[in-house]
Write a structure and sequence with these properties.
This protein has 6 helices and 21 strands. The chain is mostly beta strands. It has one domain: Beta Barrel (Porin), CATH 2.40.160. The strands form 2 sheets. The chain has an 18-stranded antiparallel β-barrel. A hairpin with a 2-residue loop joins strand 19 and strand 20. It is globular, with a radius of gyration of 24 Å. 40% of the residues are buried. This is Outer membrane homotrimeric porin. InterPro entries: Porin_put.
Length: 498
């Protein structure tokens, strides 16, 4: 009997402690829901698939082997729950459901995995000071000026540790970060002779703020193992490696560890408000300790200006320039390396996978509100371009609109791409319409509208048109080049936020 009473008392104490902990923890929930239809004609300008890695051995699904479905209905729900102990400590859990209506032929079933955890991290301040620390699966981004939607280098939800400390209050801060972009084998490798299969990055940034001016100089050092799943598993290969890795002998990496380095700065000038100016200068190299043919090294520069003095619209202009491939594959790649989520991650231009965008253009991935199947996915790396936008156009209450024109011209030598395609065949490193030669260009126009039915419910329509120059038959082959036509998109649906 005494033992029973002790168990009852112990259970009561545990329950009391649980209720007190629950009472002390505040839970705040935010999120959003999208439901929309998407008509998209001539993805990749052909209406056919682009090349895709099928496994880590380098097997490729060739371009032009599958035909697009021009109309899809997408639904996405995201819920972010913050479990707040006090002003200094919280934990965030983010879950997501995202897929098309219908799975399989004439079905409306859920996919095999219908709920995904996309954020799970702890955030707190170190006791007695203003140092902020966050650790776990969280948003991590390389600094980029705010006009361009997100980083051209890396912008993902990823396992990471981020430490931020003010050095001079309101003027200078220090940010240190560690990210693990690839963890191919987890605890144990499949053999006892396997080489390192992870990839990590270490970032230092110094955000500077003075009246009318902001800048964030930064540097990122990366190291990846030879056994990392760069192709199908992580899908970073299109942005990080040179075609020489596969197309020139000796095939493959030289070292077990591959190093990389990036450096750059953001710039934002508001001293002349309502005129505002933005810019970024970035340099990067991947495979620093590798054969010349495996190195990828280049620059990327962007700039933008806007006038915010009008109440009914905001005119904007932007431009960018990036180094491109020279005529040789054996000396490596001259395109700036970046973590481009290519064919290994789907490569279907799903918005937000590569976050950089200018003017929310239909040509670039990232920035669109109706995200899946939202754009042409043209790479600004290895190209130059310019554009203009009329943003925040509002002549009718609750209705806002945006009109954007963009022009992109390739900066890559035809010879280098032709050689890689001759050796590898159709491949994900160079994709027609995404990677432009110096003799190719694309222009695009998009007109987007948002009408607020309620404060937290919007009716959205996004439209886009893209027109290419003639693609080079000698580079891409007659079959793909002759198939190319203008691309069109119309998306229409609802966005609910809470």
């Amino acid at each position: 009997m005494k033992r029973l009473m002790l168990l009852i008392v112990a259970a009561a104490l545990v329950m009391t402690a649980a209720f007190r902990a629950e009472a002390a923890t505040e839970v705040r929930m935010t999120g959003d829901a999208l439901v929309y239809g998407n008509f998209f004609a001539n993805r990749n300008f052909t209406g056919w698939n682009s090349s895709k890695w099928l496994n880590e051995a380098g097997t490729i699904q060739r371009a032009g082997t599958r035909t697009e479905d021009r109309f899809e209905i997408w639904e996405r729900f995201r819920l972010r729950s913050d479990f707040i102990a006090n002003e200094a400590v919280k934990f965030r859990l983010g879950i997501k459901v995202e897929d098309t209506w219908g799975h399989g032929t004439l079905t409306a079933a859920n996919p095999t995995v219908s709920v995904e955890v996309y954020q799970a991290y702890l955030a707190f301040k170190w006791p007695g000071c203003d140092i902020s620390i966050s650790a776990g699966l969280q948003p991590a981004s390389i600094p980029q000026s705010s006009f361009f939607a997100g980083s051209i280098i890396f912008d993902e939800d990823v396992a990471s540790l981020v430490i931020s400390a003010p050095l001079i209050e309101n003027h200078l801060s220090l940010v240190l970060a560690y990210v693990r972009t690839i963890s191919s084998d987890r605890t144990y490798a499949p053999t006892t002779t396997a080489v390192y299969s992870n990839e990590e990055g270490y970032m230092l940034a110094l955000p500077i703020t003075v009246e009318g001016f902001k800048a964030t100089p930064w540097a990122l050092f990366g190291v990846g193992g030879k056994g990392g799943h760069y192709l199908e598993g992580a899908g970073w290969a299109e942005g990080l490696v040179s075609a020489g890795l596969f197309a020139a002998s000796p095939v493959g990496w030289k070292n077990n560890f591959i190093t990389a380095l990036w450096a750059g700065t953001t710039l934002e000038v508001t001293a002349l408000d309502p005129f505002k100016f933005y810019g970024d200068v970035i340099w990067g190299q991947h495979g620093m300790n590798e054969y010349d043919k495996n190195r990828r090294n280049g620059w990327f520069i962007d700039a933008a200006a806007e006038y915010t003095g009008f109440t009914m619209l905001t005119p904007q202009a932007f431009g960018f320039w990036s180094t491109g491939e020279d005529s040789s594959t054996r000396n490596g790649s001259e395109r700036m390396p970046n973590f481009f989520p290519g064919s290994g991650r789907g490569g279907e231009h799903n918005g937000g996978t590569q976050s950089w965008n200018a003017g929310n253009s239909f040509l670039f991935d990232g920035g669109q509100e109706l995200v899946k199947g939202s754009n042409m996915g043209i790479s600004p790396v290895g190209a130059w371009g310019f554009g203009a936008s009329l943003n925040n156009v509002s002549f009718i209450e609750k209705l806002s609109q945006r009109l954007t024109f963009a022009y992109v011209h390739g900066n890559n030598s035809s010879k280098a791409i032709r050689y890689a395609n001759d050796v590898l065949g159709s491949n994900p490193i160079f994709v027609m319409g995404r990677d432009l030669t110096a003799d190719e260009w694309v222009m695009g126009l998009n007109f987007d509208s948002k009408y607020m039915l309620y404060d937290n419910l919007a009716l959205i329509m996004e439209t886009g048109w893209a027109h290419p120059s003639a693609f080079q038959r000698s580079v891409w082959g007659r079959r793909l080049a002759n198939q190319a036509e203008d691309a069109w998109k119309v998306s229409f649906g609802f966005k609910y936020t809470f």
